[in-house]
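ok so for the tutorial part 2 we go from a plain amino acid sequence to predicted structure tokens. step 1 is just haveing the sequence, like this:
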Amino acid sequence: MSTVRFSALAAAATALLTVLPAQAEPTLKSGVYLQYDRAPDDTRVGTIGITAPIQWSSTLWGTKAGAYWDLYYSRLSSTGDGRNVTRMVGLVPSFRFRFNQGLSPWFADAGIGVTYTDRMFRTREKEFSTRFNFASHLGLGYSFGTRMQHELQLRLQHVSNAGIKEPNPGENFVQLRYGYTF
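step 2 — the prediction. this is what the tokens look like for a chain of 182 residues:
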């Protein structure tokens, strides 16, 4: 993703938050989650994280939209080098769109944020040139339980430095997340 495209996307997300009418009460709750990621080059990732609601909600395109902070710690392991373990922290402001005006157990998530690794991430095929990167994701999830406190989510995430420095190979992950809200 080029720097220009990333900047345009970030500006559009900010404009969306300021233009849409806000409500005082959050549509999301705080929570914790466990996540397993996999990349095409056989990189495996284990993630633990917490979510906290942002005091914003709106109705949008037949959904109840809300926003939340996602703070996480990940351990990335590449099979290209058994000793290649990278630790990453991330902070991603995200949007959640719950279908059927907020009544459906199904929801979609989208977000763009930042990550930082303890060293350069590398696999057999690629090596990142920065420890600071951007992470963007799209996901589809389902809430269940007596209070809808459990959720499962399938997500696609892209991590790259947005062209800040070359090389910028980027990495795509398929993620499976289990979350519990309070």
